[in-house]
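During the reporting period the student researcher (J.K.) took over the structure-prediction task from the postdoctoral fellow and processed the backlog of single-chain submissions. One of the processed entries is reproduced below for the supervisory committee.
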Amino acid sequence: MRTKDLRTLSEAELTAKEAELRKSLMKLYGQVSTGTPPKNPGEIRQGKRTLAQILTLKHERARSKTVARPAAPANASVAKRPEARPKA
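J.K. obtained the following structure tokens:
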């Protein structure tokens, strides 16, 4: 599934999709561990990737809700790094 499509889903839909992907990956891992070759080997990789995208998206949403940075004043000076002292 594309990231653009995932961004349109609600939090509940993302959670449902995550559970579905975890189940399918568990099933595929079970097939691999018993020695049965999967029908489509790329399905494992794609499932892991989509799951990671979902988790990243959920983390971004949670972080944006909790972290609200106050705006810096327009005349605030930027602290500069002290220059290195010459070696004696």
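The committee noted the following: The chain has one domain: 3-66.
J.K. will present the remaining backlog at the next meeting.
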